[in-house]
Amino acid sequence: MLPSRTSAVFCERGQPCRPLSHLSRISTVSPPPSTSVGPLLSRGQPDAHLQLPAFFHDHLSSLVNYRCEAVPSCTLQGKLIGLYFSASWCHPCRIFSPRLDTFTKRHPEDFVPIFISLDLNETAMRRYLEQHPAWLALPFKHQATCLDLADKLEIQTLPTLIVCEADTGRPVSAWGVEAIQKNPCRCLKEWRRRRSGISWWHWLKCW
């Protein structure tokens, strides 16, 4: 059962980092995952299979790199994409982001993160993006789109990494953060098989 929803994003010890007034579905704890994709990956709406392809169709051509230069969408063909819901003010995000960078550097031909910023201003977003050259991002002028997507997918914790197929927009796993933390050597292969990348065993082990 999913935890109660609140109007704040919480850090790892349960202390609120910053209110997120635009979203009303943010919670403190992530529930353990299943081993398969479906319904959508217990973190999102059942209709996320419809939401994400539409998002990809409308916005994949708008992506920029850390220098805010346009990136052709054709460079993503055949890759897995990680929609990375994050913000510079979020302490758990700042802890996880270096791990995401390391993972991305290990798989440059297979995986690329797309920063879905929940920062409150463009300066903060750009400074955060500049620290992570491997990421792509939607420009801050699309902030309303980022907030709308987070709301439609019922994003409940930050950071959240939703793994998708670039060619189809099909969501594969909403457990990208946990998979990279606990199963970094095998999760990419499992995502290719349209699995969550993390199991109950990974979730429960302490090492």
Automatic annotation (TrEMBL):
Enzyme class at the top of the EC tree: oxidoreductase
Thioredoxin domain residues: 41-185
Species this chain originates from: Tieghemiomyces parasiticus
UniProt-listed PROSITE patterns: THIOREDOXIN_2 (PS51352)
A Pfam cross-reference name: Thioredoxin_8
Keyword Transmembrane helix part of the UniProt annotation: no
Protein name: protein-disulfide reductase
Signal peptide from the UniProt entry: none
